[in-house]
Amino acid sequence: IMTISLDLEMLEELGLRPDEFVYLECLRRGENFSTLEVEATKLERQGYIKIGPSDVVLRSKYIDLFTLDKDTVWREFCNMYPFKVNGPSGERILHTHDPDAKSNEKLKKKYLKIIAGKPGLHKKIMQSLDLYLLSKRGNLGYLPALETFINNQTWESMFHEIGNYQQLTQKKTSYGGTLK
Q1: What are residue 127's phi and psi, to 5 degrees?
Q2: Phi, psi of 175 (to 5 degrees)
């Protein structure tokens, strides 16, 4: 039995239908996909596969979705999360300042395990973390430690807010009409 998680927003961004994603994922994992009917020539035009005379080969455009530079994504995550805050009882350390510190190894493994094989999840987590920190502005003293934030997957509470935030920031108001 194979389990494949679908992120419909990510599929929309990639220009893929769910059945096409399942086809590509079966191809990537070396699983049987003979029962799937997809328009392979469309996937080839999009640059996800190369159709040969006797086989179909995944191109790097698709493979790269699953290949994250682990050190880079971890540093990005750690650097965005405050490492210390001032609370009512004084200064609190939320995590080690250096993302590569030995004390962060366990957290790094846990975070990388969460995002493994889920293209787009790190980006979504970073957007959620940004919104989370914006929502806590002025009240950062009550932020949980990074370990608690990861263990509870606190970013999930902000997933529904990402769409609302993007709609708000993309709305452009113009004063006096359009320029010609």
Answers
A1: -65, -40
A2: -105, 120
